[in-house]
Amino acid sequence: MLLIMEFLKKSVSDSEFHQILRNDFEDAKEVHRAFFPQENLLIPGLTCETFCCPARGIGGDYYDFLPLQADRWGIAIGDVCGKGIGAALLMASLQASLRAQAMHTHSDLSTLIADVHRLVLAASPKHLYASLFYAEYEAATRVLRYVNAGHNAPIVLRWKLDQCEVFRLEPSGTLLGLLESSQFTSRAFQLEKGDVFVGYTDGITESENACGEPWGQERLESLLRACRDCAPAQIVSRILDDVVPFAKGCPQKDDMTLLVVAVKDRAGRRDSI
Q: Which domains does the chain have, with CATH numbers?
């Protein structure tokens, strides 16, 4: 790569060289966008909404929906350390590895994620690694089986009467691509009608204001508790409507991603609007 760059510098003028780089970056952004689902899948019994905004036009945040066999659906959200093109390249490797492994028959998610970890470890330099939350949802039972490999704990909200119960799907394994000895544990969570699942990357909670204060986990959970009867699209909008003014005037330091999934109730509420 360095030899190619030196050759280009000698072969073209500075302005032409910078135009080549700009064109290449725009092409990279198009490829990066193609890694993400072009539309949220219609998963039986669920309503989904997503948001992703890289800090540099291209980045290492990742989310995905995977149609699997036996009426199961894969749901993923991840975050590669760092930003820019290097993080995006590792994100692409993570996506390809996860999709390839998820499509194969597997007895347990811990084995699947361990295989993804080995592939990421082999394909990435030592200073790059990734967090990943990967779950498989069974529509018939509403069971969510998952492995959290060092990712921010997704939140499940459950409203009963005037109370909102908050469940955090905490890490059950280490980061991907970091340690050869990493181990992963699969867990299961029984979703109920009306539940809302919120996955996010730390670019959301670590957004800072002019004083260097992060938006934070507490603000996120407080806002979510007030989102009873909100559709996923409304929840995403309410989060951004709070985060963006909070960080007004400050550069975006990290990629920002949200993934909100609601379990439809009997009346068919919680549809996207």
A: 44-263 (3.60.40.10)
